[in-house]
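Morning!

This is the sequence you dropped in the shared folder:
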Amino acid sequence: MANIFDYLAWRGDLSFGQAPFNPVDAMIFCQLSYLPFDAIVPSPADDSGITVTEAAKIFIRKQEKDELGGDIIFRDDPGFLQVLGSTIRFRDCLLYRYVNHIDEEQEKQFSAVCINTGEFTFLAYRGTDVSLVGWKEDMNMSFIDGVPSQLEAVSYLENTAKQIKGNLILGGHSKGGNLAVYAASSAPEKIRKKIRHIYSFDAPGFHHRIIQSGGFREIKEKISLYIPQSSVVGLLFEHGKDFIVIKSSQSGILQHEMYTWELTYDDMVRLDTITRSSRFVDKTLREWIGGMDHEHREIFIDAMYTILNATQAKSVLDLGSDWFKASRKMIQTLGNIDDDTKKVIRRTIAALFEAARNNFSALLPYRVPKNRQGGAALPL
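The structure's back. Tokens below.
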């Protein structure tokens, strides 16, 4: 059951010249983007950079003094950064052009960092952090083409490409993978030609407009999509090409975390298909979301965000710290919402249960009867 830490033990002593860049390295760079590098890694306004080793040392000092500029999203991240900084393979990689923008008014959460290996530059887009506004922006993708973080992802790519010579590789996990594909498909043709590859790890997809665009068609063959066998997030919306299904040591939604993904010496452990539970969730969410027009989705999502905001929490962590108090405030806020919006909420939740009931058969195993040579399989 090898994971990222095992890979670093196996390959950490080999430079990229000795062992070529592979999908696991891309996954590692995308995980690195989750670290709160505020006041550690230089911003785009600064032409300088900092090595992974130097960043790890400063990060540890700041953590010990409780001076970090942001939340640690994954509990293994500090240890991961420390190990990364001690490896021959990654220690001298240069980190620069770090940005971390959260804007509640625009409902935007965006963060990215550039990583230079000496051979190429990797643009790593961060996925959703623990901020409530970050989760709100994710939900906005269900009814908005071009949410603020997607637009900033394009701008970040264009500005970076102007400053950097040589090839680019883009990648991200969760929303970060969505941003990487969106930015590449929306960038000018000159920049698209500089992109060598795009890695998307368990990321939500897009509306048909993006998939059918000329920019997407140009980069389609450069995209690698990875999802764990029980994916939920990675099956949302359309992707325009096939997935690579990988094995996780966890179950359900916990598989979304990349630390749970099982690895080989230069790849992820691959599987033939997703699980029945993942197919069930996929079909249910598609039917549920597809049954709502954009106005309906917007009303429901805005109402849910209003209820959560009433707790005065800024992050998911804040909600969990005093769930009883937060629940009381949410119930009070729900009581103050107008009747028409309440009807939308009730109707939307009822539609979710109806979609789940309609797709329950996806959870059942299938077999082909012995007395039949072909045709559709039947549920056991």
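Headline: Confidence is low (pLDDT under 50) at residues 366-380.

More detail when I'm at my desk.
O.
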